Structure formats: structure tokens, C-alpha cells
């Protein structure tokens, strides 16, 4: 801070950072603003700081995973939906420990937190019998000479298991990854994009907790003006010990302080209003919701009046976030499992989604009013199929 010091001390720039004395001299403390401290960008650090400790991130991930999981996946053969099929049975009960809903919920949640989701196929006698969700932080790509993945290593319990992609009838692992502009193999999740706002939101919560632990009072200074105007070193240390023992912490909240011997209390810290504390916290929460594609209104975050009501916000969530996510996962499953089930196609059924009922009704009205279309063409446009 040379420019400020020049103005304060008449051009002298050799002022020490901190100077204090107990022999009659004035105490002077000058400090510079240190660099911001950010949490790590690794998966484990982001999950610990975000999903397990931040309510906004937790609710965003749960909201997306649970809502997307409400969309049933159907199986179609040659464009016709079927009610009974081995692929449909596999998606309904992928393994002995999970239902299809649990598996898909984990897939959606991993895509939001890690940007990657992995499914392993259990192949027995040349047929896919089971599906398992694998943790993203335990997976690593094994690239071939051409740079494309030829296998995946799964590390657990101190061991690494290599899962080949040359298995028949499908590759051993389906790797779903969100777009990452700087990585050839791994995706980038919304949680990583929200890291800065996440740290700000967490820091504000820690600051608020520390404020409560210190009797909800900001820090200040004890000014000694009796006698020579200074304390001896022994008196200074004793005063610090008594302050920490009798007036710090939540147990001492509201405890009156008795000052004597020329001591006076002066508050020197900025108040939450000065720091615009509450608004900064809400702004960070809105940025986190923005990264996940969740309207802040659905999370109860004040100050966002983009949508007229909750119904409009819910529609925006489905149109902009959930529908693209579900369609992408369904297409990935079709491309992976289709060859093992005679070209069967996995298709999401949005008919039962209440938030999209208005859009479906508008589509039906437009198609029904098109007299130049045959009944078969109308069925195809509305996704019903050609019928019998």
C-alpha cells in the first residue's frame, strides 16, 4: 500500500507492517488485504464443501435428480412402445441391490456433481444381465495409442480393476460426460462451475457462526487512557487472557463487561450492513442455482422476480434443465444397450409430467387442427405411434 502510506506519513514508505510497544509508545497496526482462499477443485473437495455442507447445492442436486427420475423410460421396437421386453426388465431391476429408479437417480446426481456418470454392464453368456453405477472419483480412463478410451480402471479397497471396452455384445462401461472444453475424456459438472459462489456462500455461513460464537458482537478495541496511556507487557497479556476466558464464546453471550482503570471499549469492525452481508449471501446462492439451471424462486431465495409465479419457474426448470438431461441419458442408454437387444430404443415418456401438460395440450391442439395430416401422421408427430 505505498500510495496510502505516502499520504499518511508524508512520503515515508519504510513504515513497518506492524509496530507495537508497551513502554509509552503508540500502538499502530497496518495490514494488507490477503488473497482469497478457495477450496480445492477436486471431486472430493467439491462434494465435501458443496453437497454435504451447502444447503443450496444439496437442494439443487436433489431437485434435479428426483424430478428427472419421475420421467419413466419406455422401450420401443421399430417405433412401437412395448410393455414387455428384456431391456425394460433390465431397466426396472438393474441389479440385486438397486431398483431402476435408484440407479437413474444416482446417474443424474453424479452428472450434476462430477460431470461424469458411469454404468457397468454385467455380461453373462454373451447377454447383458445387470447394470451397476460406479462412483466417478474411483474411475479413470485408460487411453489407447490413438487417444480413445480402450478400458477403465476402477479403484476401490486398495485395488484397481480394469474393465475392458472390447467386451461383447456391448462395451463394459458406459461413460456419460457433460461438455468440458479443456478435457478430452472427463466432463465438467455444474458444481465445479459454481465453486466460487459456493465458497462465498460457505464463508458467509462461517462468518455468521463465528459472530454468534463471539456473543454476536464484532471485534473491537480496549482503549487504555489512564496514567501514561499504555499498559505494561504483563498487564497486556493478563487482559487478553481474561477476555478470552470470560467474554469469548457462545457460553458468554450477553455477559456484561465491567471496565475500570481507564479502559474503554471501541468497536472497530465493519457491521454486516456495511459489508452488505445478507445481499452478498443471496447473490452467491442465486449464482449457485444459475450454474445448476434451477430457478432461484424454487429454492426460496429472495430477490429474484424473473418469473411471475412458481408454476412458470417450474416450467422453466423442466424445459431448460430436466428435459434435455433426461433425453440425453435415454439416448446414451439406447446407443449403448441397443445392439444387445435387437436395436431396441430407450425413450423417455413425458406424458405424465404435470409441468409439461400445457405444452402437450398445445401440441395436440396444433396437430389435431392440421386437416392435411392423416391419423397415422398425427400419431407419429405426437409420439403415440401408428397404432394397430
Question: What does the model show?
Answer:
- The model is unreliable at 1-30 (pLDDT under 50).
- The chain has helices at 2-8, 43-49, 55-68, 86-92, 100-113, 190-193, 195-213, 233-246, 277-292, 310-337, 357-368, 375-382; strands at residues 18-19, 28-29, 73-77, 80-82, 116-124, 127-134, 139-143, 149-156, 159-164, 173-177, 220-224, 263-267, 345-348.
- It has 12 helices and 13 strands.
- With 388 residues, it is α+β, with helices and mostly antiparallel strands.
- Among the domains are: 43-192 and 309-350, no CATH class; 357-387, no CATH class.
- The protein is elongated.
- The strands form 5 sheets. A 3-stranded antiparallel sheet has the order 4-3-13.
- Helix 7 (195-213) runs antiparallel to helix 9.
- InterPro entries: Phage/GTA_portal, Portal_HK97.
- This is HK97 family phage portal protein.
Notable characteristics:
alpha+beta; 17% strand; disordered N terminus; three-stranded antiparallel beta sheet; 12 helices; 388 residues
Short précis:
This protein is of the alpha+beta class and 388 residues long.
Task: Present the secondary structure layout.
Elements: H1 2-8, E1 18-19, E2 28-29, H2 43-49, H3 55-68, E3 73-77, E4 80-82, H4 86-92, H5 100-113, E5 116-124, E6 127-134, E7 139-143, E8 149-156, E9 159-164, E10 173-177, H6 190-193, H7 195-213, E11 220-224, H8 233-246, E12 263-267, H9 277-292, H10 310-337, E13 345-348, H11 357-368, H12 375-382
Tell me the Rg in angstroms. 31 Å
Strand order of the largest sheet: 4-3-13
Terminus-to-terminus distance:
81 Å
Major sheet characteristics: 3 strands, antiparallel
